[in-house]
From TrEMBL:
GO MF annotations, alphabetized: RNA binding; rRNA methyltransferase activity
Family: Belongs to the class I-like SAM-binding methyltransferase superfamily. RsmB/NOP family.
Entries under InterPro entries matching the protein: MeTrfase_RsmB-F_NOP2_cat (IPR049560), MeTrfase_RsmB-F_NOP2_dom (IPR001678), NusB-like_sf (IPR035926), NusB_RsmB_TIM44 (IPR006027), RCMT (IPR023267), rRNA_ssu_MeTfrase_B (IPR004573), RsmB-like_ferredoxin (IPR054728), SAM-dependent_MTases_sf (IPR029063)
One matching Pfam family: RsmF-B_ferredox
Subcellular location: Cytoplasm
SUPFAM superfamilies for the chain: NusB-like, S-adenosyl-L-methionine-dependent methyltransferases
Protein name: 16S rRNA (cytosine(967)-C(5))-methyltransferase
CDD domains tied to this protein: AdoMet_MTases
Matches recorded under Gene3D superfamilies: NusB-like (1.10.940.10), Sun protein, domain 3 (3.30.70.1170), Vaccinia Virus protein VP39 (3.40.50.150)
Length: 443
């Protein structure tokens, strides 16, 4: 399927089949393409992310026009209808004829039978004719475009008002936020550098080294200072999590689930002379990306271990002054950045995450030295992965006490903590939804 619509459809079909993260699937489908015009790539991305974000809403409309249940449709037919309808509703500058003809042409190029191309063509034309009467994207269930189980869960947990607000924000485009690598450049100088290059930006509202970049369309690698390692893309909420390991002393700190190293280097940045960071990351692919990031960002040498935190913990490594467990989680707090997450989770998957999180915290407990700090974090807003994990941990580990997170955060961020002293940011504050608990080991 040669054109941008065809590539978008192919990506969406692969994503549905593979149940893999959308950004990974998209990277694979577009990395090998030789598209002369960069706008073609942008269109593919806009279509793919837009369709996934609004899938529930689009499907509601398609169902109104179809006499067959959507579950009986061929996957390619449904994907073509979603891609076509998305253009009709959301891409204001796209002429109606181009939206329909190019979508149908992509099916023809893929040698789809006449009945299928005819059906998609007819449906899209019918929807275009009745465009003025289609339900708006801000009405009823259409706003939500989230799976029913999740909406029900959030209604029960947060009430209808908050649920609608969170769902609505999840469907908006997230801001580009970076953390300045102050080992290389000061935040003030980085802001000046961006402004000199005509890039609008402002200081973060909550985190001291956070910078919000406005109206920048290109890839982050094209921002000034990328090659020099002046910044790393990181939401302000994630930046605040590392700060909870304060007060920083010149001891050893463990990033127990380092991933690509967003928080690993931040810790190195925060430590005084003589402090050292050790990182654990079992995924080989992520480890390689972590090493690349650390090379780009520079800074002190960081010891990296490729085993799981459970294995690392069982090897009885010497005590750490601070341990961060930024646990694998559902990601329900970052749907705005990864719209596919909502369709790939279930209540059962939350239970699965909780089990892993409890194991990871238990493994971390033994690694913390006396009076050391343990921080548990997720990018989820679901209590099953947050408050419940913490309650179970504290019950089994009475040597740990919860200390109020607000005492370790900048003034502006203190209001993000709840009565129990947990840090809880949500998309409503313009932040990624994070949970973090700070504990100290007494025994
Ligand atoms: C939420 S991500 C970490 C994000 C990272 N801290 C950052 O700020 O970019 C969780 C990471 O935990 C890793 N992980 C999964 N199982 C693990 C285990 N048993 N022990 C340690 N890390 C694990 C995953 O590979 C993933 O990279």
């Amino acid at each position: 399927m040669g054109n941008s619509r065809g590539i978008a459809m192919e990506t969406l079909l692969t994503w549905e089949k593979a149940q893999a993260p959308l950004d990974q699937v998209l990277e694979t489908t577009i990395s090998g393409l030789s598209m002369d015009d960069p706008r073609d790539k942008q269109l593919v991305m806009a279509l793919v992310y837009g369709v996934v974000r609004w899938q529930g809403y689009l499907d509601g409309i398609i169902q109104q026009f179809s006499s067959h249940p959507l579950t009986k449709m061929k996957p390619l037919t449904l994907v073509a209808l979603r891609v076509g309808l998305y253009q009709l509703i959301f891409l204001d500058r796209m002429p109606e004829s181009a939206a329909i003809n190019e979508t149908v042409q992509a099916l023809k190029s893929a040698r789809q039978p006449k009945w299928l191309t005819g059906f998609v063509n007819g449906m899209l034309r019918a929807m275009a004719r009745q465009r003025a009467t289609l339900p708006a994207a801000d009405e009823g269930a259409a706003v939500l475009s989230h799976p029913a189980w999740l909406v029900q869960r959030w209604y029960d947990l947060f009430g209808p008002e908050r649920t609608r607000r969170i769902c609505w924000i999840n469907n908006t485009l997230p801001p580009l936020v970076v953390r300045v690598n102050t080992l290389r450049i000061s935040t003030d100088d980085f802001i000046i550098l961006l402004q000199e290059n005509g890039i609008g930006c402002e200081r973060g509202l909550f985190a001291q080294d956070g910078v919000r970049i406005n109206d920048f369309q290109g890839p982050v690698t094209a921002l000034p200072g990328y090659g020099e390692g002046f910044f790393v893309v990181q939401d302000e909420a994630a930046q605040l999590v590392s700060q909870l390991l304060a007060p920083f002393v010149s001891g050893r700190y463990l990033d127990g689930c380092a991933g690509l190293g967003g928080k690993t280097l931040h810790l190195a940045q925060l430590l005084p002379e003589g402090g050292r960071v050790v990182a654990v990351e079992p995924s080989r692919k992520r480890q390689a990306m972590l090493k690349d990031n650390l090379r780009r960002l520079g800074g002190p040498e960081i010891e990296i271990h490729g085993e799981t935190l459970q294995v690392f913990g069982a090897q009885r490594h010497a005590g750490f002054a601070g341990v961060l467990v930024d646990a694998p989680c559902s990601g329900l707090g970052v749907i705005r950045r990864q719209p596919d997450i909502r369709w790939q989770r279930s209540l059962a998957s939350l239970q699965g995450y909780q089990e892993r999180q409890r194991e990871l915290l238990a493994a971390a407990a033994g690694l913390v030295e006396k009076r050391g700090v343990l921080v548990y974090a997720t990018c989820s807003i679901d209590p099953m992965e947050n408050d419940e994990v913490l309650a179970a941990f504290i019950k089994e580990h009475s040597e740990f006490v919860i200390t109020p997170a607000q005492e370790y955060l900048p003034e502006a961020a203190r209001s993000l903590c709840d009565g129990q002293g947990f840090f809880k940011s949500t998309p409503e504050q313009g932040l990624d939804g994070f949970f973090a608990a700070r504990m100290v080991k007494n025994g």
